[in-house]
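Handoff note, outgoing to incoming analyst
You'll be picking up this chain. Sequence as last confirmed:
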Amino acid sequence: MANQYKDTMNLPQTDFPMRANLAKNEPKRLAKWEEADLFGLLLKHHEGHPSFILHDGPPYANGPIHIGHALNKISKDIINRYWAEQGYYTPYVPGWDCHGQPIEHKIELKLGTEKFRATPQPEIREMCRAYALENIDIQRDGFKRLGVLGLWDDPYLTLNHSYEATDVEVFKNIYLKGAIYQGRKPVHWCIHCQTALAEAEIEYHDVSSPSIYVKYMLTEKPDKLKAVDGKASILIWTTTPWTLPANSGIALSADADYVAVAHGDDLMIMAEALVEQVMQAAEIEDYSLASNEAGVIRFKGSELVDFEYKHPTLEGELGRVIVADHVTLEDGTGAVHTAPGHGEEDYVSALETGLTIRMPVQDDGVYDKTAGQFEGIHIEKAVGPVLNHLKAENTLLVKKNIKHSYPHCWRCKNPIVLRATEQWFVSMDKTKLRENALKALDEVTWYPEWSVNRIGSMVRDRPDWTISRQRAWGIPLPLHRCKKCGKVVANEASFDAIIDLFKREGSDAWFIREPQEYLPEDLSCECGAHAEDFEPEHDILDVWWESGVSHTAVLENYPEIGLHRPADMYLEGSDQHRGWFQSSLLTSVGAYEKAPYKKVVSQGFTVDEQGKKMSKSVGNVIDPNEIADTLGAEVLRLWVASTDSSQDMSVSKSILDRTSDAYRRIRNTFRFLLSNLEDFNPDKDAVAFEELLPIDKWALARLNELENEVKANYELYRFHAVFRPIYDYAVSELSNIYMDALKDRLYSDAPHWKSRRSAQTVLNETLQCLMRLLQPILAFTVDEVLEYMPEALKEFEYGALLDWYTPKISDEQAQAVLKEYRLALQLRDAVTKALETARGEEVINKSQEANILISAPQAFLDAFDNEEGKAALREFFIVHDLKFEVAEEVSVSVNAADGEKCPRCWNIRELGGNPKHEDVCERCAQVLEELE
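Most recent structure output, in case you need it:
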């Protein structure tokens, strides 16, 4: 019977597919964007507007993109798309870090170490360049596949000539201020990569190391011990036995109390506070403290200064006792084995006290002849021979293994060492760089707010920056040394000549041209020598310097699209507090005395569902290319938006499957909205706010509230707090409440009736709002929605060109309406439960069959116990009828309605009121007459 009325209903109509088929359709949409030059259209759309510059931190051009890359680039795209919707001009220039050890290592693996070392440096550099460019193409395709808009055809590359010239420009600025110097001091050194490492190139892993207590035998007993039998020594503790050949001193705490522990024929001097702890570690019970008639013999550390001892490994060599501020009594023996060539604090102490600085470890980790009997042994194999020697000398008290955190090379993942070498440094204090950098940090806005504490503590505590590297692939330090007198030749004229050379020919010219070919003829050394007697510096610049100066190399070198320095924003992972955020800060403050960024967003790392680090060997790696080819890049974009990026973010296939399900629900909401607006033209059909039906007013007011909340969280870069209210509104409140309540009006009223147009007015506003709120996140889907949107509703062909949603009513109007709405929601909770109970008891089959009695406090009756209020709630609850009575608390009772079901609209209504259409209700009969 009902089928005869099907054609009289306004049933949903849209070609917008229920199934997205993202993996298949996204590449087609990307091709469409490419053909239209969507990024160019976006810039043109906002040309002349205020700009928002999100400066891209360059990923390393090495291998396909990973899930961390996807998080990073999608986050940046969300932010850029949001600010574009706000009307800002958003020229986003992606870039790549192209130099450094990882690429060089790939070439070494390809050639083999022997052939690699025999190949001329210019050839190595050419192979490195080709590798970098190949990987840039691979990564660029991966980033574009994610829907990220940017200047992909003209990215910045750190190997470009203009960029390399800028490296020298910033170096010149900081050098001429006196902040850059050469010195011999311990630096982090990778014996596998054979290069110095900066703080940002170090990561920490747990290792098992030998923990040893060693007796350093004094050449003379202190006076206080001369009457006590036994051989006097100072007991040290170390976890790096391989550094013993570099020992030159023992450091004590000046004011601490030291005692001599008598055990056998030994008198072992150590801090009194640590005796019990040391004896437990050595499993020695039969010991005593050396005493005389006055009691236990004690020394202040300062009393033992300049006592000498036999070197622990070098025959005939002596060491000397000193005091130092860095000695604590927290662990060990209170006597610190001091090897100035292998420790920053040891090195400083040696300079202050005149200790010998020994460095027996060569670049490759092999001892040289100054290590004596250990010459030719690699330090990784030295522990056994060193311990055997100590045992033979009867100076090893005890050896155990302990697990502790130890620094490793960020690229080869091997343990590193501290090693005194000649390197170039940026002083943190000579030109007040540390002080100025800390001041600059206070002028930057940080997201999350607490992240400034992390970079602040790193800048406050960091040593001078080691900027030289012993590698082939990178920017050479732009310095020359005079062959005649050995002095460095560097001034404004020499730097300008190098800048000009790099602009014309790139940094490769450094390795193939002679200095006299590019340096000024009148440039001379203090000794009178000229360019033909100059030797170029062989070390290259730290790659963190290179990426760090992008604030100048990029932001001042794209004038045609309006970049500027400082950037409005930097966004990267939290590891960049000691990496790019910091190198950018130090080079900018060093050169210009201000930060390179106004705002910084710091994100956590991607981990698996159990919070574990991702590893191919474990099998928990998520490949964004694979996800794009199966679930679709849109699902990755939604995952980014649904996760709190201020902390580590879990991702797995099951998490992405759940994200895909959330996507389908949002998509269904869009489909419902589109399907009920096919015959709606807002220019002709829209209903004014004052004339909307009550529940339509409620829904329109909720859009105001949603827009305010979402906008605020976009501007705090809390994407998860953007997504959650949108999702809850679109999937729960909108779909399950409002749209469900509207169906009778939408489907059964006459097409042009004001009641139906009222609903369509708000559905259109909802569609327009959700598109704009979600476009930064669901870039592909909003574009698709526009494609299927009726022309009368469409403003642009591409979602990226949409402007932000402008609410149709004021916040004051919205809040007035929402008071009533919140009361209705409170009643709805009680009504819904009562209806479910009635269905379970078979009182009714559907809510439309129910009459309900609402017992509620007077405030509810004041709001709704009138004809308009009850009509609104009948529709809101989808019931046949309702009544009110006053009560202290809300309760609802349900009875079945009397009457017949209308075969057209399925509501319980009085039938037969119209003689022409006796089998339907009065409303449906009126619609049928109009249709006839």
